[in-house]
Write a structure and sequence with these properties.
The complex is a heterodimer. Chain A contains 24 helices and 22 strands. By secondary structure, chain A is of the alpha/beta class. The termini of chain A are far apart. Chain B has 2 domains: 101 residues, Rossmann fold, CATH 3.40.50; 73 residues, no CATH class. Chain B is extended. The chains are: A alpha/beta, B alpha+beta.
Chain lengths: 661, 186
């Protein structure tokens, strides 16, 4: 039997390493797939299946996509639940000796997508790792497009149910598990039954309890932002984090600067909402089609930025239970609600802020282009104004936001002086760097734009100096620029002219000066492109060193955005500020169902009171015909309670809500 | 099954700090099974020692209305409906007190079920109601009789048990006492 061709051998070696992925193998301008991958991909993507000689008697099945449109095809495969390994050419094929060096540079999985066209801008794309040990679980959750990273552990009663609740809360696109969980078929099938989710197993050794390396590379903090004191109490969480980080390293293959802080949280901090409650209340997605319209989120989302949109979704998914924390935020909303002009000014600024979190994700990945930098600059530009606006705030929570808002003036200046206002999409064609930022760039640029004029100047000067009236400057690819003199004027040619070429009725010369100008002009374009590229990546690196500062300001922006959104909604829809305490009473007067109210003509929703307490009014038995509104009424009470604890105003006249756990 | 799994989770997890919402539990099974489950769940939740969670419990088992008088912490509510000749109007207002009217056929009419079917349903309902009243009367007699007999037997057994001196009882005596009790139940 014949051997496989060398390239095919390499392919098969790779395939062995990435068994669970479809490999996009770069060949020139195409990504090709072979063998079973090709059969699968041609079926899923409706591509034509062809063949390629592979050294065997039979040709290898093959199909491919052009490199420039690969992203769309990859996103379709990811959506269908495949993992895609991208294998690139690592050297210039023109310079390669033998077969071109290729390797997998990234594995794209549902939980590790960063391309903005594959992501919903107002929704986090989480990947979650679950470490099971005995009856306990450690969990770690990351959105690699924004750098958000959380971890917790579940070690109480009924842990598996709590785990399901946490999965529902984050609704990750992908789950990575250790073998103990993977082999627990009953639990795995329960997860699969409830969530449409991609589950992969990571080797057990990855889930180590080693926290030294972890704390060297990442900042590990508690909910209040303070460092963790005792890692030994968090070993399940740490194992889950280590497992996730190894998975990210394997798939992303680069160190991601924007993932730098890991937030440990206690699941008891948030209201526990079981999966069916979450689904039935239609908080962020409809039960039927998972769409946003008709959900609580749909009513409440008045955010101005994508970051705020994501944070709002997060807040709705994890209502707080600490009365103080809730009230701190409620007071902030009140201040924003009461100061209409102030709020309007803040929103005006927020609207000009781009998705900073995902921009820095791109910067950290090294695929941010100059336009992304301009978006970042224009966003940062709003910060000093925002800081000024926030100065007079009175509520504790807003004052904290004010204190945390870094204006990032240095970064603004850096981008402002370096990058032109309207740069091209690609960073490999120049046109990025502003005049005055770098002397060499300026000189090369002058050469390319003014080169023609220089040549014309030389022509006129030489005419005057020599008196050769029909002297002209020409250009050929072989000789470059030259001075052409007809036979009749040969006697006027000075000694400094160096003869290059003799034609039938003229001679062509060059001069020292012409040669110098030529050197400047020719190659200037190439040089400036290379230099601009270097300067740009250098700048990107500089910004990337400041990522943590930018992230802090981004958090302030998104929080402010959500609070403003709440305040606007409260005003527009006539919501009141709930009184949240530990009394154990729910007292809602003239309550309305936030979503249904919005779908009905204004004012037509019938308001209802609710009173429940710890004693005589614990259980209400509600009877009445079908369609009379029993379910609506009950959901309304649940939603109002939830909204109060999401730190939000409520659709009612008086709402007293004890903190529901 | 899924519904019962959800109920199971709620009963296991809910505490006095929870807000529980139960919408027509027991709907998916036979009437008596469903009613019994709903009843037992309401009793369980209302008991402070088990759970005592704040609860909204919507049901079409009107029998549960009785619980208000039987257990502490329970209040009945209903959604107001106005009858207007053949039709009903939903007022969407929650009011104190239970209702045993289900207006099932009215609702069917409102929902757009063809008038022929609605008319026929009304006919069937009337026949059924007649039959049930008759049967109920008969059943009641029988049932009370049975219950009385049963209570009498229980009293006798209690008396028997009371007489037993456990300290002076040999295993054989104990067995004999059991046989006696069993016989009384026949």
């Amino acid at each position: 039997m014949a051997e496989y061709s060398p390239m095919m051998q390499h392919y098969l070696e790779l395939k062995e390493k990435y068994k669970d992925c479809l490999i996009f193998y770069r060949l020139g301008d195409f990504y090709e797939m072979f063998f079973d991958d090709a059969v699968t991909a041609s079926r899923e993507l409706e591509l034509t299946l062809t063949g390629r000689d592979c050294g065997q008697e039979e040709r290898a099945p093959m199909c491919g996509v052009p490199y420039h449109s690969a992203e769309t095809y990859i996103s379709r495969l990811i959506a269908k639940g495949y993992k895609v390994a991208i294998c690139e050419q690592l050297e210039d094929p023109k310079k390669a000796v033998g077969i071109v060096k290729r390797d997998v540079i990234r594995v794209v999985t549902p939980g590790t997508v960063v391309e903005s066209n594959m992501l919903d801008e107002k929704k986090n794309n989480y990947i979650m790792s679950i470490f099971k040990k005995g009856i306990f679980f450690g969990i770690a959750i990351c959105d690699i497009s924004t750098g958000d990273f959380y971890a917790s552990e579940i070690k109480e009663n009924n842990n598996f149910v709590k785990l399901l609740d946490e999965i529902a809360r984050f609704s990750p696109a992908e789950i990575v598990v250790n073998s103990m969980l993977y082999d627990s078929t009953e639990e795995i099938s329960k997860i699969k039954e409830r969530f449409d989710i991609f589950i992969s197993k990571q080797r057990e050794e990855a889930f180590t309890e080693n926290y030294d390396t972890l704390s060297d590379n990442y900042t590990l903090v508690k909910e209040d932002g303070k460092p963790i004191e005792n890692y030994n109490n968090q070993l399940f969480a740490i194992s889950a984090i280590n497992g996730l980080i190894e998975y990210l390293n394997q798939t992303q293959k680069i160190k991601l600067e924007h993932i730098n802080t890991i937030h440990f949280y206690a699941i008891s901090r948030y209201m526990s909402l079981d999966i069916s409650a979450r689904r039935n209340l239609e908080i962020t997605e409809k039960m039927r089609d998972k769409s946003k319209k008709g959900t609580l989120l749909w009513v409440l989302d008045k955010t101005s930025t994508a970051m705020g949109g994501r944070l709002l979704r997060r807040w709705l998914n994890d209502p707080l239970i600490d009365v103080n924390e809730i009230n701190r935020r409620l007071n902030a909303v009140k201040e924003l609600k009461d100061n209409i002009i102030f709020r309007g000014d803040v929103i005006e600024k927020l609207k000009k802020v781009y998705d900073i979190e995902r921009l820095i994700g791109k910067i950290s990945y090294g695929n941010a282009n100059a336009r992304d930098m301009i978006s970042l600059k224009n966003s940062i530009k709003q910060l000093p104004d925002l800081k000024l606006l926030l100065k007079p705030v009175k509520s504790e929570f807003l004052i904290e936001l004010y204190d945390h808002l870094d204006e990032l003036n240095d970064l603004y200046n850096l981008i402002e002086t370096a990058i032109v206002d309207d740069p091209p999409m690609t960073i490999k064609e120049g046109g990025i760097i502003k005049l005055g930022y770098n002397e060499d760039v300026d000189r090369y640029k002058k050469a390319t734009t003014e080169g023609k004029q220089w040549i014309i100047n030389i022509e006129t000067e030489e005419k005057e100096k020599t008196g050769i009236k029909n002297l002209k400057v020409g250009y050929t690819k072989v000789f470059g620029y030259y001075l052409e003199v007809t036979r009749s004027y040969l006697n006027l040619v000075p000694d400094r002219y160096i003869r290059k070429q003799t034609l039938t009725n003229c001679e062509r010369y060059i001069t020292e000066e012409l040669k110098k100008v030529e050197d400047e002009i020719i190659g200037a374009e190439e040089k400036v492109i290379a230099l601009e590229y270097d300067l740009f990546t250098e700048l990107r690196k500089k910004i990337s060193n400041e990522i943590e500062r930018i992230q802090l300001s981004a958090t302030v922006i998104s929080t402010l955005d959500v609070l403003c959104s709440f305040a606007t909604i409260a005003e527009e829809l006539n919501y009141v500020m709930p009184i949240v305490d530990n009394s154990g009473e729910i007292d809602i007067q003239a309550g309305r169902h936030p979503v249904i109210e919005k779908m009905l003509p204004s004012g037509s929703f019938v308001q209802n009171d609710t009173f429940l307490n710890k004693d005589a009014d614990r259980l209400s038995i509600i009877t009445g015909p079908n369609m009379a509104g029993k379910s609506t009424y009950m959901r309304q009470v649940a939603l109002i309670t939830l909204m109060a604890q999401v730190r939000k105003f409520c659709p009612c006249k008086l709402c007293k809500d004890w903190s529901c756990r | 099954m899924v519904e019962m799994m959800e109920v199971a989770t709620i009963l296991k997890e809910a505490t006095s700090n929870s807000l529980v919402i139960l919408d027509e539990i027991g709907r998916g099974t036979s009437t008596y099974d469903g009613l019994s489950i709903a009843w037992a769940v309401a009793e369980y939740i209302a008991n402070k020692e088990n759970c005592g969670a704040k609860t909204l419990f919507a049901t079409h088992y009107h029998e549960l209305i009785e619980l208000e008088d039987k257990l502490e912490g329970i209040k009945n509510y209903s959604i107001a409906v106005k009858e207007k000749g053949e039709d009903i109007i939903f007022l969407r207002k929650i009011i104190r007190g239970g209702t045993d009217e289900s207006y099932g056929i009215h609702v069917a009419k409102l929902a757009g079920v063809p008038s022929k079917v609605v008319a026929r349903a009304n006919e069937i309902l009337k026949t059924l109601e007649r039959k049930i009243t008759i049967r109920d009367k008969e059943n009641k007699k029988e049932l009370t009789g049975q219950l009385d007999m049963y209570n009498y037997k229980l009293a006798e057994i209690a008396h028997e048990l009371d007489k037993v001196d456990i300290n002076g009882l040999t295993p054989i005596d104990a067995l004999n006492a059991l046989v006696k009790i069993k016989e009384k139940l026949k």
